[in-house]
Every structure is written in structure tokens, then in C-alpha cells.
């Protein structure tokens, strides 16, 4: 799972909020789909820039992340670099495009676990659920890294 940084959590929530507030969404457009919207949030690139970069190679986002090569010189790989730098894993980008990460889906009520990958509302739910999961992981990680509370040393009885 992604490294649960506050920057990544904020990016997921901002992306969900933009979509909920009516940002243009089109699953078949590489700059306005699930990954495209997250890439817009993280990289501050326009949907057009992202779409054009992605078109340098064929396929959808799952193909682009599968074929990712940081030294390729392709603009899409530079975009993916920025996404990975926030702590995302390659597989999570493919999962985002299809809304298919089991760790996220298991947190949803049983009747909501069958998300439609090209439904704006389902994308918002997935992003918010993923952010909540990462936030919980970050809190658990902080708690486990805190020094253990030490019991006070026993008082020595003084001889009078």
C-alpha cells in the first residue's frame, strides 16, 4: 500500500472534492479519468497536458503504468514519477483506474463493494475511502513509533 503521507492523503481528498464539485469527468479521456484527475491534482498539469503525454503510447492508464520506465524520456513516465514520489505504488495506479484495490473495497459496506470504474460517484467514494485507510495507517504508524511508556522506577526505601 502507498506510503501514508499527509501530502498523498490531501491529494486524494482534493481530487475527490474536485470531482464531487463537478470537475469535468470522462473515463475515456486520459486526463479526465480516475488516474488523470489524481495526476492533475498532484502535478498541477492540465488535463490536456496529461492526455497528450499519455497518448505518446497506446492503451489506458493500466498499460502506461505497466510499461513505466523512469528513464524512457516519455512525458507520461515523468508524470508517473511525480505520482510515485508521493508514495504511490504502480499497482495502486492501475487499481485506481478500475477501482479495484481489495484493501479499499473491503472497507466499504458490502452492498457498495461492486464499484463501477467509470462512475464519478464511485470514484469519489473510492478516493475518500482510500484516504481514510491511509490516514488510519499513518496514525497507527505514529503510535507504534512512539517510545513505549516507561513504568516509574521503584522507589528505594531509605533506612532511617
Describe this structure in words.
There is one protein chain. The protein has helices at 6-20, 34-43, 47-55, 61-66, 75-85, 90-98, 102-105, 120-145. By secondary structure, the chain is mostly helical. The protein has one domain (6-140). Helix 1 (6-20) packs across helix 2 (34-43) and helix 2 (34-43) crosses helix 5. It is globular, with a radius of gyration of 21 Å.
Number of strands: 0
Topology order in helix (H) and strand (E) letters: HHHHHHHH
Instruction: Indicate the structural class.
Output: mainly alpha
Query: Any idea what the radius of gyration is?
Result: 21 Å
Q: How is the main sheet built?
A: none
Question: Helix amount, in percent?
Answer: 55-70%
Amino acid at each position: 500500500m502507498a506510503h501514508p503521507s499527509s501530502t498523498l492523503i490531501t491529494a486524494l481528498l482534493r481530487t475527490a472534492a474536485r470531482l464531487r464539485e463537478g470537475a469535468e469527468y470522462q473515463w475515456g479521456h486520459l486526463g479526465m479519468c480516475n488516474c488523470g484527475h489524481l495526476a492533475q491534482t498532484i502535478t498541477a498539469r492540465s488535463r490536456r497536458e496529461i492526455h497528450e503525454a499519455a497518448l505518446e503510447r497506446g492503451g489506458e492508464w493500466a498499460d502506461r503504468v505497466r510499461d513505466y520506465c523512469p528513464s524512457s524520456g516519455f512525458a507520461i513516465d515523468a508524470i508517473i514519477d511525480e505520482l510515485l514520489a508521493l508514495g504511490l505504488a504502480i499497482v495502486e495506479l492501475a487499481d485506481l483506474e478500475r477501482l479495484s484495490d481489495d484493501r479499499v473495497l473491503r472497507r466499504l459496506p458490502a452492498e457498495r463493494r461492486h464499484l463501477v470504474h467509470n462512475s464519478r460517484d464511485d470514484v469519489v467514494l473510492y478516493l475518500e475511502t482510500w484516504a481514510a485507510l491511509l490516514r488510519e495507517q499513518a496514525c497507527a504508524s505514529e503510535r507504534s513509533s512512539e517510545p513505549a511508556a516507561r513504568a516509574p522506577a521503584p522507589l528505594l526505601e531509605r533506612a532511617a
